[in-house]
Design brief:
It comes from Papaver nudicaule (Iceland poppy). The strands form 3 sheets. The protein has an 8-stranded parallel β-sheet. Strands 1-2-3 form a 3-stranded antiparallel β-sheet, with no helix packed on it. A two-stranded antiparallel ribbon has the order 6-7. The protein is of the alpha/beta class and 430 residues long.
Amino acid sequence: MSRNNGMLYPVIGFASCVILMYMSLGNFSIPTSKQPDMNFVTVSETQFMLDGKTFYPNGWNSWWLMDQAVEDESRYRVKNIFQIGVKMGLSVCRTWAFNDGAYNALQISPGKFDERVFKALDHVIVEARRNGVRLILTLVDNLQAFGGKTQYVKWAWEEGVGVSASNDSFFYDPTIRTYFKQYVKAVLTRKNSFTGVEYRNDPTIFAWELMNEPRCMTDPSGDTLQDWIEEMSSYIKAIDKNHLLTMGMEGFYGPTTPEKLNVNPEEWAANLGTDYIRNFKTPYMDFASFHVYPDHWFKDQSVEDQLAFVKKWVSSHIDDGEKILKKPVLISEFGMSNLNKFYTQTNREQNYKVIFDLMHRSARKKRSGAGAFIWQFLVKGMEAYGDDFGFIPTENPSLYKLIAKHSCKLAVVQQNEVLLKQISKGVCQS
């Protein structure tokens, strides 16, 4: 009897530990199957490289993954969107790795984090890898949604720091720079609660994106933003030497390239404190990226004129990567608003096709244009998370097929038989 009790107590103790672990994780499913092997994506001149071959990161945006992974009833959507993306032959998803001071905040206050939300981000990374998808993780937003730079400035005010009333003090105030560095270090060195792998050592992450759509309108010279980019990119690379790094630039040309100003949508675009070529010449920036939104950048421009601008805008940035920056180039956001007075499903598809064709042509010629990311994909039941660009791919058969066929073309360029087989049955043959 005493011998049986001696065996029983350790068993009970172990079971109790497991139960406590489960309770601490909420209802997150703990992965038991071996994760697929992945290697880090690298850069060689104007090409992305993976396993010794050229890699074209064809993908999409779903900013909401971490947010939806927090709650039990919405977590399934993360898996769903990855499965849909894979069936269309997409390989990389761009998503937010931040939520500052808002509902389901990751960072509650400077340097303080909600472990429940961090576990949600852990889950996103694990689920991405399970499905063979890589992630571009964005670290902060210029916009106020989910905190952004405005939240950092608010925190500084609350701490009695004498910052400017402008939220551009995010870029130059030393206290706020320290806040952001604390956050960056916490994310990059985060040990995934499911896999035990620090984020900086996980090849599921394709790249870090320093900021989404940065603007510093109080300094149109571009010096303030450039100084911030140089300091923060150097800081990230000192912590993480494995991953690629970029900025989520809109792509506007600035003061250092006056010969390019006529490519900008309108005169205002040169006065936002950004300077595309200068920003991406920063040595720690591994690749360049830009956005394409002519229906937001122009007033009352016809669809034909918008498409003409898209061709000029995309071609110019591919040339920049090829001839000036000597780096790969991604379109990290593009789309067409359904609030555009010229909007039709056909016009949206035409917009997509123009961009896809330009990227396919660049890939065939081994130029710097490497991929394009649609803004944005949703799944059923997410109407409240949508915007005038978002759509559910499975409910838009013609768009679904257009995207998958572009994936097929890129798979042929890469001679990727595995990718061709995983794309929805029959699409590549039709």
